[in-house]
Specification:
Elements (H helix, E strand, L loop, with lengths): L2 H33 L2 E5 L4 E3 L2 E9 L7 E8 L4 E9 L8 E9 L8 E7 L12 E8 L4 E10 L12 E8 L4 H11 L3 H5 L2 E2 L8 E7 L2 E6 L10 H15 L7 E6 L10
Parallel strand pairs: 2-8, 13-14
Antiparallel strand pairs: 1-3, 3-6, 4-5, 4-7, 5-6, 7-8, 9-10, 9-11, 12-13
Helix pairs in contact: 2-4
């Protein structure tokens, strides 16, 4: 090997080493910057997350605004899986560290085993240069899943809107023995943006809660809160609501009939 090639190799190695240490120094400076603002006790880097994530730590008061600051759970390609706010557990109007705590139910289905927790300061100014991020790598336990059908009205498939005519869409959910309740919970979420573009829509109100569901001798007894019939008028909409609920439940072999109640009352509910 001639001297010219050796010289080029030596220069290349020096450049690579220099770039490595410059990158390390930059990362170390960024880490020091966030370490002076926020300390996360849970989760730790590369923790395994299953059905619940506990976010716990402390941050300086300026990390928060009105005692909260946003968090994001991200996939391996940094798509947002869910988000919310951590909550300060003390007076946040201080320069000192304030404890925070948040329990997050993992009700999404991760597609990959790797992901991230991103914590961000609440920046009321909106200026990007004042944003600060703290990123923690996570490992997801990918759950077993199953497919359920839920039923909506559809303006394309039923343009004249025949009220009690509903059409299925499929949803992948985490495998559960309480599959009837899980299917209803998916129904109450309403159609996705993709489903809306396909003409699907719901006749159900927002904020409806399932208070209980019991299955006995082929009949499902489902109790909802009063939001089920809030400002619901017209025989057509009432029929659509009943059809959505009944058909979603009757997909299961163990359910032949559905009785709907509101706060335990079955008479005079969902009246036109």
């Amino acid at each position: 090997m001639n001297k010219k090639i050796i010289f080029i190799l030596v220069i290349a190695i020096i450049l690579l080493v220099g770039l490595y240490f410059l990158g390390w120094k930059k990362n170390d400076e960024e880490k020091s910057k966030t370490d002076d603002l926020i300390h996360v006790f849970r989760p730790q880097a590369n923790d395994f997350i299953a059905d619940k994530l506990i976010i716990e730590g402390e941050a300086r008061g300026k990390w928060f605004f009105e005692a909260t600051a946003p968090f994001y759970i991200l996939s391996s390609n940094f798509a947002t899986l869910t988000s919310g706010f951590i909550e300060a557990k003390g007076d946040w109007m201080t320069e000192e560290f304030v404890p925070f705590y948040k329990e997050v139910e993992i009700n999404f289905i991760p597609e990959t085993e790797r992901g991230y927790l991103l914590l961000k300061n609440d920046n009321p100014s909106g200026l990007p240069e004042k944003d600060v991020y703290h990123l923690i790598p996570l490992n997801f336990k990918i759950p077993e899943t199953m497919i359920v059908r839920i039923y909506f009205n559809n303006s394309n498939l039923d343009p004249e809107f025949s009220c009690n005519k509903v059409f299925p869409v499929e949803r992948r959910i985490i495998k559960t023995q309480a599959v009837a309740k899980a299917a209803l919970e998916e129904l109450l979420k309403g159609p996705t943006e993709t489903e809306k573009k396909q003409g699907f829509f719901t006749s159900l109100n927002k904020d409806i809660k399932i208070q209980s569901i019991n299955i006995k001798d082929g009949t499902a007894f489902v109790d909802f809160n009063e939001q089920l019939e809030f400002q619901v008028g017209g025989s057509c909409r009432v029929a659509a609501i009943r059809a959505q609920i009944s058909e979603t439940l009757k997909q299961f072999e163990s359910i032949k009939n559905v009785i709907i109640s509101i706060n335990g009352r079955t008479e005079d509910i969902l009246q036109p």
